Amino acid sequence: MPSLEELGKILNWSACRECGDCLARCRYLGLSREEAISEIKKINAGLPARAAERCVSCYACDAFCPNGAHPYERIHYRWNARYLEKGLPARASYLMPTRRPNFRQDIAYSAEEKRLHEAWGADSPPARTVLYPGCNLLTMPLLMHPVITDRLPVWGRWELCCGEMYFRMGLLDEVEKTAKRLTEYYAARPVDEMVFLCPAGYNMFTNVLPTQFGARFSFKTVPFAQWFLRELDRGAYRITDRLTGSVVIHDSCHARVLGDSFLGAQRAMLERLGLTVIETTDDRADGLCCGMAAGCTSYSGLDIMRCASRELKTLDGAGADEAAIYCTGCLIQLGIARLASPFGRPLRHVLELVYRAMGISVNARLASKSFRIFRGIAAHALPRYLDPRRFRL
Ligand code: SF4
Ligand code: SF4
C-alpha cells in the first residue's frame, strides 16, 4: 500500500484550506460552520473527531470540496487505522464480500439465476465489449434480458469483486490486494470496452483503483447509460413503446463524485424513454444515500435502515409516479427498507424502464430478493451484535 505520505500527494491533502465547506454541507452530521472547521482540523491533525465517528460514508464531501482535497478519504483513512489497531466487530463478518457466508452470495438463488452466474463466469471474454456485472448485478441476475445481453454480453463472477465495500469501509490493504488481483487477471484477457451498470464498479475501475492503488487496465471503462445512448443513436435499439409519466431519480454515492457527465447521462437516458425526470429537494451531490454505505461505518443495521428510510421518504415525497434507480445495490437496499414501508412509490431499476420502452416485460423480483437478503442478515449478523470478539481479514 502507498505510504501515508504518498497517499497525501495522490489525494492532494496539502490542498485543504480547512474552510469547513465539506463537513458544513454534510447532510448527516448537522454541523455549523465553526463545528465543521473544528472537526476537519481534528481530522487533519489525526485527533479523535466526532465527524469521523458519525460519518455514514456517503462520499458526498469529496464532491463538496472546492479544492479537490478529498475529505472523504481523510475520514476513511482514519477508519483504516482503527481497523489495523482493533480489527472488526464479529457482526461485520457477514458484510464482507470475500468472506463466506456473506449477504449477497449466500442467499438462495433459483436454477435460472445459477445458470446465468455460470454462463457469465467464463474464463475468457465473450466479446471485445462486455458488461461487468459486479456483486450487485450478480445478486439480481434476472435484471438482464437478451435484448441487452445479445449485444452486450455479461462477463464476470463473484471473485472479480471490485473491492468497493472494502474501500468504503477504509480497509485499504484489501483494496490494494484487489487492485493487484484485477490488474493481473485482466492483463491476460483482451477486452476493448468494459461497460458498467454499477456506478461503484465504474468509479473503482476508472478512478479509485488506478489512482490510489496502482491498478492498470487496458480497456476503456464506459457507464451503461452512455453505452445505451450511443447504441440508440446508432439505431441498434428502438423505443417502440414510448413511456409517459414521471420518475424521481435516486443518485448513488459514487455518482456524486463522478459528476455532471455521469449524472446527466442517467437523466438523458430516462428522458429518451419518454419519462419526465423529477429531482428530489436536494439532488445530485446533495442527494441522500440509500443506506448501504451507513453499514460501512459502524456495521449497524439500525444505521442502515435509518438512512434508507430517510431516502425512501424523500423519494416518496417528490410527487413522481415511480422512483428510478440505476445502481442495483441502491435498489436492493431501498427494497429492503420498502419491506417496512410498502405503500410508497414503486422502485424501478432503470433497466426495467428500458425494457418497458421496448415493449418487454421483466419482473426483477425485487421484493423477494430484498426479503432473502434481509433474512440472511437477520440470521447471520443480528445474533452477533453482542459478540465481543473481533476479527481481521
Ligand atoms: S477538505 Fe476541502 S472543503 Fe473540506 S475543509 Fe479542506 S479544503 Fe475545505
Ligand atoms: S462521507 Fe458523507 S456522511 Fe461522511 S462526512 Fe462526508 S458528506 Fe458527511
Question: What can you tell me about this protein's structure?
Answer:
The protein starts with a helix and ends with a strand. Helix 18 links the parallel strand 7 and strand 8. Helix 13 packs across helix 15 and helix 18 packs across helix 20. With about 400 residues, it is an alpha/beta fold. It folds into 3 domains: about 80 residues, no CATH class; about 120 residues, Rossmann fold (3-Layer(aba) Sandwich); about 130 residues, Rossmann fold (3-Layer(aba) Sandwich), CATH 3.40.50. The mean pLDDT is about 95. The relative contact order is 0.13. Bound molecules: iron/sulfur cluster (2 copies). The site of one iron/sulfur cluster has 12 residues, from helix 2.
List key phrases describing it.
binds iron/sulfur cluster; 4-stranded parallel sheet; alpha/beta; Rossmann fold
Summarize the structure in short.
The protein is an alpha/beta fold.
**Oligomeric category:** single chain
Cα distance, first to last residue? 16 Å
Physical arrangement of strands within the biggest beta sheet: 6-5-7-8
Low-confidence stretches: none
**Which word captures the global form?**
globular
Q: Which compounds are bound in this model?
A: iron/sulfur cluster
Mean residue pLDDT: 94
CATH T-level topology of the largest domain: Rossmann fold
Helix content: 40-55%
What structural class results from the helix and strand content?
alpha/beta
Our Rg estimate from Cα atoms comes to 20 Å
Question: What's the tally of helices?
Answer: 20
- In what range is the share of β-strand residues? 5-15%
Order of helices and strands: HHHHHHEHEHHHHEHEHEHHEHHEHEHHE
Beta-strand segment tally: 9
Number of domains: 3
The appropriate CATH architecture of the largest domain is: 3-Layer(aba) Sandwich
